[in-house]
Specification:
By secondary structure, the chain is α+β, with helices and mostly antiparallel strands. It has helices spanning 4-31, 33-53, 78-93, 123-137, 171-186, 211-216, 221-230, 258-262, 276-279, 314-329, 344-374, 377-400, 407-443; strands at 66-72, 99-107, 110-117, 148-149, 158-166, 192-198, 203-209, 235-242, 245-251, 265-269, 272-275, 280-286, 303-308, 336-343.
């Protein structure tokens, strides 16, 4: 067994070796000061590049590495969804590599499955593995139910909320403008995973059938449904040539107006066609809503939520989305404009400005203290130089380990500036003291 004396001897020997190594490093640096300055300048330049490339966000992403599978089956109870959709999906998704846990939730008409992967698993590799299993699981669930993957964004990916300021335009028109123009344009921005629409009415043709008229004409409801579905489609024909000219024949049958729906035939009575307008009323309405979106108590509004992809630079993506909004604005109807409801870039830029402000304050404070107490401008300059170099080097390490900047890390850097300054002041003061003692010995 090693006794306390041997442990103390080993500890003391290690300490001496460390001190010797530090002295040799200092001596080597003093002898090659230009090389040291060149290395410092290279680190600073590399750090500036790392700062520009490092993803910046306001909130640290602590969410799990997960893939969400969503399935919808209208009108089914939670128990039916659990038995016929959720359970087959969860059973089939078991056994995927690098999976930590699988959670599921069933509700009225909807099923959610959360596949949680290891933190080191690549999210897009995980999504492809889940998609492979879903192709097989499709045959295990009821026909007509199609499970889909959720967006490739995290729980803190909601970086921008906006609404449409469209006075005088009804909510149905606003929602159509959002879904078929604004949303499709913003989804082309690099780094955007999804643009989720909210508010307003999703426009639809509504056919209200009169059961008495249906019974009078002796037409089953299934025949009406089949007629409406089959008469809302384009039909391809063929190509034929006549007099050396080729013609393509096709049938145009998509519904464009309410009268198109009313004119759909559903049966024949005594050689007279029975149309939709004979057994039902047709109107333009909105889909069923589970809630409304109100802004500041001023009434309902329509807008969207921009969701960012994994690992993207939130500040960069937000500015790109705003630039795209400026281009989309040119194509909006007169009187329609964007209103930003939530913008995370304001918090991000405030955090960056706070760090810059702290850095400048520390530099000024250190300069004043060193000049007043040591009466040396060169000493103050040496301390000031090491602050930006140290901060820039820290971003090199952040990029190397794949860590993004956020309020927490920027606050840590702001606090660390004080430690850097304290260390520099102590070392410079100690150097001045040793130099002063050496000069006194020479004089004596």
């Amino acid at each position: 067994m090693i006794g306390p004396a041997h442990r103390a001897t080993a500890l003391w020997t290690g300490l001496l070796k460390t001190i010797t190594m530090i002295n040799q490093l200092i001596s080597l640096s003093l002898k090659n000061r230009y090389i040291v300055l060149l290395i410092a300048a290279a680190l600073f330049a590399w750090g500036i590049y790392a700062i520009r490339e490092n993803p910046i966000d306001a909130i640290p992403d602590l969410s799990e590495n997960q893939v969400i599978v969503f399935a919808e089956w209208q009108g089914r109870s939670p128990q039916i969804m659990e038995d016929q959709v959720t359970y087959p999906l969860v059973s089939n998704l078991q056994g995927i590599p690098k999976v930590k846990a699988i959670r599921a939730t069933s509700m009225f008409g909807m099923s959610f499955v959360y596949i949680v992967f290891d933190d080191k698993a690549d999210v897009y590799w995980a999504r492809s593995r889940v998609l492979e299993r879903l192709n097989y699981a499709q045959r295990l669930i009821p026909q007509g139910v199609t499970p889909t993957l959720g967006p490739d964004g995290t729980g803190v990916g909601h970086i921008l909320w906006y609404t449409l300021d469209a006075k005088g335009m009804d909510l149905g028109e606003q929602r159509a403008l959002q879904d078929w123009y604004v949303k499709l344009g913003l989804q082309t921005v690099p780094g955007v995973s999804e643009v989720a629409s909210f508010g307003g009415f999703e426009k639809q043709y509504q056919v209200t059938i009169d059961p008495h008229k249906l019974n009078y004409y002796n037409i089953p409801l299934s025949q009406v449904l089949k007629a409406v579905k089959s008469n809302n489609n384009d039909v391809g024909g063929r190509k034929f040539e006549m007099n050396g000219t080729g013609y393509i024949v096709r049938g145009l049958g998509y519904i464009k107006t309410l009268s198109d729906v009313e004119s759909i035939p559903v049966g024949v009575i005594n050689t007279i066609p029975v149309k939709i307008k004979d057994i039902a009323t047709v109107q333009m309405g909105g889909d069923e809503r589970l809630g409304i979106f109100d802004q500041n108590g001023n009434g309902e509004t329509v807008g969207g939520i921009v969701v960012m992809r994994y690992g993207e630079n939130a500040d960069k993506v937000i500015h790109a989305v705003k630039d795209k909004m400026a281009n989309i604005q040119k194509g909006l109807p007169p009187g329609v404009s964007f209103n930003i409801a939530y913008d995370r870039s304001e918090l991000i830029e405030s955090s960056i400005d706070s760090v810059k402000h702290t850095l400048i304050e520390e530099m000024i404070t250190v300069s004043i203290i060193v000049i007043l107490f040591l009466l040396s401008f060169k000493s103050a300059l040496s301390i000031i130089i090491q602050i930006p170099i140290t901060i820039a080097t820290s971003f090199i390490l952040l990029n190397a380990f794949g860590i993004s900047s956020n309020i927490m890390s920027l606050t840590g850097i702001a606090l660390a500036i004080g430690v850097i300054v304290d260390n520099g002041i102590v070392m410079v003061e100690n150097s001045h003291r040793n130099l002063s003692l050496a000069q006194q010995k020479e004089k004596s």
